[in-house]
Amino acid sequence: MRTLKIVGIVVAVLISLGLVIGSITWAVLASQETPPEPPELIDLDWWQHCVLYQIYPRSLMDSDGDGIGDLKGITSRLEHFVDAGVDAIWMSPIFTSPMVDFGYDISDFYDIHYEYGTMDDFRELLKKAHELGLKVLLDFVPNHASTEAEYFKKSVAGDPTYKDFFMWADPLWVDPENETNRLPPSNWVSQFGGSAWEWNEERQQFYLHQFAVVQADFNFRNQAVKDEMFNIMKFWLDEGADGFRVDALPYLMEADPADHDGRYPDDPLSGIMQFEPHQLGYTIPLYTKDLIELYPIVYEWRDFVDDYNKKHQGTTRVLFSEAYANVSMTMLYYGNEAGDIGAHFPFNFDFITELNAESNARDFVYTILRWLTYMPYRAVANWVFGNHDNNRMPTRFRHDMVDGLNAVNMMLPGVAVTYQGEEIGLRDGYVSWEDTVDVEALNRGDNETYMLYSRDPARTPYHWDDTTSAGFSTNETTWLPVAEDYPELNLKKQKEAERSHFKVSLRSY
Ligand SMILES: *[C@@H]1O[C@H](CO)[C@@H](O)[C@H](O)[C@H]1NC(C)=O
Ligand SMILES: *[C@@H]1O[C@H](CO)[C@@H](O)[C@H](O)[C@H]1NC(C)=O
Ligand SMILES: *[C@@H]1O[C@H](CO)[C@@H](O)[C@H](O)[C@H]1NC(C)=O
Ligand SMILES: *[C@@H]1O[C@H](CO)[C@@H](O)[C@H](O)[C@H]1NC(C)=O
Ligand SMILES: [Ca+2]
Ligand SMILES: [Ca+2]
């Protein structure tokens, strides 16, 4: 027994020794092993992770009491964007315009609209914004010009340089008995309703307008037009703009008569009974939207901007593009499989077009993953929660979803795009038929249906405080009425409150 016990103790001691030596050996070996490579860290450029805030200049801040927002007003409020954690602002068009489509009908691409201020006001805005560390993007509207533009007037007059700047076409048919009875070149329908072709008496031809009658489409098969677009971009980049939001790209080009027996081909009919021939939806825009020929033009713009960045110091200038299109046509704006590169990103409108108050968590996940699935490898994602063309975010969803949606916007990878007022949960304002000024509502609707089309409710003035016109203007009358809920729903109140949408978004941004 005793011997056995001694043997047992010896064995136990040996095992313990073995364990200790083994552990030490393991520790020594492990410490000599090369540590795993740290994950590759890619330096992100400003535009790859920014909070981008859309300003609707007419409605942010009025500095001179005429009831209309202006550049000096924006400059006076720039600190707000710093407070809110915004990195970059983009302003809807501030260029000279008859304002039929509130600036998307530009008559001088090289100057500031008089109601908004002067070139010096713009320079002042830019200077202060840059001092505050804010990037400033302008709205580039390449598809069309106002019929008040010199380009169009000269084109009508047959000036050799501008003759083919726009989409001119002869009538399809003229009544031999009465020549004022004529058919337009095709059945194309304008985005704002009615034929996309308008007769011009002086030139004795039709011109194309995919939007309002006074917004004549440029002819992108004309090299001089393409060159002019580079000139416009260069002009504003030279002024110091940090890039552009690019407007309405799916409509940039239309079918070429050369491919269709010399005439503009009719769009196929949708067959939807409720639509009449002059109404959007009567046709399927096969020859008027998403044409594959438009993408190389966007890729050339990107080359131009990249080239500009190479030649000039400073921050990276960028292109963010607007297109309401299906996911495959949208992704092509990033670039194509041949290696062409387009916009830094096309806006992702899925939170506007795919989701609403009825959506459940699965719908949100599905929609988010769809973008990330289709997006090209290493591209930058972005998420748009509202803009000047759609009902405001709290109105499209629910008022009690504001904080959640702002948080989702900030947490998703890539760029958060937010529309004026989302940081305080600004809702659609009520705009009566009498007060309606939106060309889309006026053209497509009447006193009973205008609300289906009107973009005015998303454009009512910002609510700074509870004073006259919500602190937007000293004028009691403003270009669109201030929404009635401003005494309760305004920035000042939300800054003072212990909890508010602004305080939540402030922490999230
Ligand atoms: C107040 O605004 C209205 C509407 O924009 C305008 O007609 C009026 O002239 C403005 N008043 C002043 C004093 O500018
Ligand atoms: C010619 O047609 C126009 C438009 O349809 C009509 O207004 C006009 O009265 C017609 N003129 C004659 C002489 O019939
Ligand atoms: C998107 O639209 C294009 C042409 O308009 C079509 O060829 C394509 O199949 C569509 N893609 C999806 C995913 O719907
Ligand atoms: C719309 O206008 C028509 C014609 O002027 C009128 O009969 C109708 O009562 C109006 N409807 C509303 C809701 O005001
Ligand atoms: Ca003003
Ligand atoms: Ca076009």
TrEMBL record:
EC number in record? 3.2.1.20
Q: Which UniProt keywords apply?
A: Membrane, Transmembrane, Transmembrane helix
* The name this protein goes by in its record: alpha-glucosidase
Give the organism the record lists: Diatraea saccharalis
Catalyses: Hydrolysis of terminal, non-reducing (1->4)-linked alpha-D-glucose residues with release of alpha-D-glucose
Any single GO BP term: carbohydrate metabolic process
Q: Note the superkingdom of the native organism.
A: Eukaryota
Tagged with keyword Transmembrane: yes
Which top EC class applies here? Answer: hydrolase
The uppermost taxa in this organism's lineage are: Eukaryota, Metazoa, Ecdysozoa, Arthropoda, Hexapoda
What terms describe the molecular function in GO for this protein? alpha-1,4-glucosidase activity
Annotated ranges, domain Glycosyl hydrolase family 13 catalytic: 54-459
Cited SMART domains: Aamy
Q: Where are the transmembrane segments?
A: 7-29
SUPFAM superfamilies to which the protein is assigned, alphabetical? (Trans)glycosidases (SSF51445)
The record's section on Pfam families has: Alpha-amylase (PF00128)
